[in-house]
């Protein structure tokens, strides 16, 4: 596991970027470091605007490595502000290699360098699953993921909760299906160590330094690549998103034709209803006119009859 294991240090990285005076760092890059966008190290990353956090940039690179116990793949991720301040630094390795007591010794080493005691959580032992250990330092908090987001991960959909997640085995979909703990990073600045390994000492390792207080999600997330540090999980979700986009594109012409047909039918029904109402109004108007004429004739006849007795009385004289 030593190959690729990150060492906490306050060193100068990324050209002229100076590491901030903080103890939470991954691969020497500390939270708060001011990155140099023109440096060769920064140029190794593929960067784009964050899907989840307005004003932030998401950067990632993947590297292959080898140690005496075997080859491995490591994915490095950085989230930084517009001015280049790093607020999230992550390294995920698969497979990682652990000897006897190596995980506990590594956690103790980080505790000495950070100067704090770790908060340790161990994954409940289950047959067919590796041993999982999670250690955290600082003010970062591990918030259990909500039910809707877990269900979405189980079905290969986007999580409903924004933010960065961690689990014990480095496979969110499997963790969700098997009911294993998944957490969202919240709170303040801190460092998280997560390792898993089977009886042969092979597993996964993830190291995360973050200032969660700087992350205030305000936008609707796109494909949640930022929540997924496992490259296989990223590919699966990306493929799901591509399939959804293709399906929507194929449905669009049919949907448009259906909408146009419904609109034409509604217009025809509206015109028919208006014609019926106009006919009914004409009939009512005719009846009212006839009634008014009959009323006028009756009133005229009544007035004429009022003069008959008077004339008869005058003639009697």
What does it look like?
- With 317 residues, the protein is an alpha+beta fold.
- It folds into two domains: 25-224, no CATH class; 230-317.
- It contains six helices and eleven strands.
- The chain has helices at residues 40-43, 102-114, 147-154, 172-178, 231-306, 308-315, and strands spanning 25-26, 29-30, 46-49, 56-67, 70-81, 86-97, 119-122, 131-144, 165-167, 182-197, 202-211.
- Strands 3, 4, 5, 6, 7, 8, 9, 10 and 11 form a nine-stranded antiparallel sheet that branches. Strands 1-2 form a two-stranded antiparallel sheet.
- The radius of gyration is 38 Å and the shape is elongated.
- The termini are far apart.
- Residues 1-22, 218-224 and 307-317 have low confidence and may be disordered.
The residue ranges in which pLDDT falls below 50 over 5 or more consecutive positions are 1-22, 218-224, 307-317
Which structural class fits the helix and strand makeup? alpha+beta
Helix content: 25-40%
Radius of gyration: 38 Å
| H-E string | EEHEEEEHEEHEHEEHH
Shape: elongated
What is the number of beta strands? 11
Tally of individual domains:
2
In DSSP terms (H or I, runs of 4 or more residues), the helix count works out at 6
How far apart are the termini?
A: 142 Å
What is the overall pLDDT average? Answer: 79
What would you say about this model in short?
By secondary structure, this protein is an alpha+beta fold.
Give the topology.
Layout: E1 25-26, E2 29-30, H1 40-43, E3 46-49, E4 56-67, E5 70-81, E6 86-97, H2 102-114, E7 119-122, E8 131-144, H3 147-154, E9 165-167, H4 172-178, E10 182-197, E11 202-211, H5 231-306, H6 308-315
Antiparallel strand pairs: 1-2, 3-4, 4-5, 5-6, 6-11, 7-8, 8-10, 9-10, 10-11
Helix pairs in contact: 3-4
